[in-house]
Amino acid sequence: MYEVQCIDHGYAPAKAVCKQLMEQGAVEFSGENAKRALVCLSQGTQFGQNHLQLEQAEFSFYFGTEQRGSNITMQFQQDPKMGGMVLSITAEGY
């Protein structure tokens, strides 16, 4: 009924994230994956509501130090081609 995949584009750190998502990620409640990723990458972010459900979201923020880091874009949305919800995390920087 559900299909999951994780595309790492051959990038070693992304492979580790994909491995974790494939082993521990929620399939039926995929918004939980988006919430957990945001909390992990954006220090100080909390979702205090136990029953908060993400239907769709887009976040942009900086991750790292002043000397070295990345601009992170997270999107969680319906993808008609994939036939379900897609979580995309993109890091641009050094």
Fold blueprint:
Blueprint: H1 12-24, H2 31-41, E1 57-64, E2 69-79, E3 84-93
Describe the global form: globular
- Succession of helices and strands: HHEEE
Q: What is the rounded distance between the termini?
A: 39 Å
The radius of gyration over CA amounts to: 14 Å
Task: Tell me briefly what this model is.
With 94 residues, the chain is an alpha+beta fold. It has helices spanning 12-24, 31-41; strands at 57-64, 69-79, 84-93.
Q: Which descriptors would you attach to this protein?
A:
three-stranded antiparallel sheet, 26% helix, 3 strands, single chain, globular
Describe the structure.
- The protein has 94 residues and is an alpha+beta fold.
- 26% of the residues lie in helices and 31% in strands.
- The protein has 2 helices and 3 strands.
- It has helices at residues 12-24, 31-41, and strands at residues 57-64, 69-79, 84-93.
- A 3-stranded antiparallel beta sheet has the order 1-2-3, with helices on one face.
- The longest helix has 13 residues, at 12-24.
- The chain starts with 11 loop residues before the first helix and ends with a strand.
- The mean pLDDT is 87.
